[in-house]
Design brief:
Blueprint: H1 2-36, H2 47-50, H3 52-55, E1 64-69, E2 74-80, E3 86-93, E4 96-97, E5 115-119, E6 124-125, E7 133-135, H4 141-145, E8 154-156, E9 165-166, H5 169-184, E10 190-195, H6 201-206, H7 213-229, E11 235-238, E12 241-244, E13 247-248, E14 264-265, H8 268-347, H9 351-375, H10 386-392, H11 397-402
Parallel strand pairs: 1-10, 8-9
Antiparallel strand pairs: 1-2, 2-3, 4-9, 5-10, 6-7, 7-8, 11-12, 13-14
Helix pairs in contact: 7-8
Length: 417
């Protein structure tokens, strides 16, 4: 009995050790899995992005700023360097955005917002149904001052959009992680600048006839402030418009979205640099617009010339067909009439009549010459080359008459006795 008890004890001990080893192995697998993946909102930034930071003189926790361009379907992540200025860290292709170029106006229009938005930690959503997300904070003060409505306008994953900017899950994973690290470093909010397109002179000229043009020029001012300083501009709203890097002259006077702007100043260095850039861009916009208008006029002239050429060809074909038969009828009929009427006139002629007939002979000869000129085909004069016709605007009726082109509507001269 004792031997059997010892055998059972050894067997149970062996089973216990196997179970413990298996449990340890499972726990180890789960721990490895947690280290590799972990909660999605706590996952690390991709190694490829992290590797760029030392070369750009950035720390992992330095502040960030985002720029979105609809037409180019691009989202840029800018990050502060140790110099205090921002540099471009990563460019992501937006998977989907909904609506058209232009701001969001009202709930349900499925427009993705355009403007300047501040993202605080409270707007980050680690439990999003679209992998990860952050709310843009639409409508902001500017939007509300124009009575614009809408809710839950996000940058999120899942590549599906109804008024949002949708990224792939991996993209939003990195964007979310970069924002999380910047908050860890002490950044209270990061700025998102959402534009219809890159605010270049070429793009402004291209879209100058849009109903949103003045709104876009206002956005361009904020774009220019960042371009010349490489720092996110301070954003305020007054008189229902954005103002950038504005410092009230009286300390403590607030900017109110729908109220008159308080007296303010912009730091001289920024103001001068922005003004210079805007003058250059405005001049380029004018030049591009004028060049396009000249091109449109030239195309209209060319279309008119080719249109007239087709009409002229059709007229010439008709005229040629008519002109081949007209000379035969025009020369034989007057001669026959003249011969028929000349016989009785000669029989009843008196001396005075003969004298009158003799006096009229030169006139009759001249009329015959006129008839021959009017009906005989004449050599067409060249109207010049393509560019002569392009800039002359086509010949006049007087020119055509001078060139010897017969007028098909002119009356046939009567035969002379």
């Amino acid at each position: 009995m004792m031997v059997q008890g010892i055998a059972r004890l050894r067997k149970n001990t062996r089973r216990t050790l196997v179970a413990l080893a298996l449990a340890g192995a499972l726990a180890g697998c789960q721990a490895d899995e947690m280290i590799t993946a972990g909660p999605k909102h706590l996952r690390e930034i991709s190694a490829s992005i992290k590797q760029k930071m030392p070369g750009l003189d950035m720390s992992m926790t330095s502040p960030i700023m985002l720029r979105i361009f609809k037409e180019e379907s691009t989202l840029e992540v800018w990050k502060q360097t140790r110099s205090g200025r921002f540099a471009l860290l990563e460019t992501f292709e937006i998977c989907k955005w909904s609506g058209e170029l232009g701001p969001k106006i009202k709930e349900g229009d499925r427009q993705a917002p355009e403007g300047f938005y501040e993202i605080t930690p409270a707007l980050m959503n680690p439990n999003s149904s679209y992998h990860l997300a952050f709310n843009l904070g639409y409508p902001n003060k500017f939007d509300r001052s124009h009575n614009r409505t809408g809710t839950h306008l996000m940058v999120h994953g899942a590549c599906s959009s109804r008024g949002c900017y949708a990224m792939t899950d991996q993209q939003v994973q990195d964007i979310y992680a970069l924002a999380r690290e910047s908050f860890k470093g002490g950044q209270r909010s990061f700025q998102v600048q959402a534009f219809p397109f890159r605010m270049t002179a070429e793009n402004l000229a291209k879209h100058r006839k849009s109903e949103h043009y003045e709104f876009w020029r206002m956005l361009k001012s904020g774009y220019d402030h960042f371009e010349v300083t490489k720092q996110p501009p301070k954003i305020d709203v007054c008189e229902k418009r954005y103002v950038f890097d504005a410092v009230p002259l009286v300390e403590g006077v607030p900017f109110r979205a729908t109220a008159k702007c308080p007296e303010y100043d912009v730091p001289d260095a920024i103001e001068v640099a922005v003004a210079k850039k805007q003058r250059t861009d405005d001049q380029k916009i004018i030049e591009i617009a004028e060049a396009e208008e000249r091109s449109e006029r030239r195309r209209a002239q060319i279309a008119a010339i080719f249109g007239n050429s087709e009409t002229d060809k059709a007229g010439e074909s008709t005229q040629t067909a008519t002109g081949e038969a007209a000379p035969a009828a025009g020369t034989s009929q007057p001669v026959a009439v003249a011969a028929t009427s000349a016989a009785p006139a000669a029989a009843a002629a008196t001396a005075p009549a003969a004298t009158a007939t003799a006096a009229a002979a030169p006139a009759a000869t001249a009329d015959a010459a006129t008839q021959q000129t009017a009906f005989a085909p004449t050599e067409q004069k060249s109207s010049g080359g393509f560019f002569s016709r392009l800039f002359s605007g086509g010949g006049s009726q007087e020119t055509e008459a001078a060139d010897g082109t017969p007028d098909p509507d002119a009356p046939v001269p009567p035969a002379k006795p």
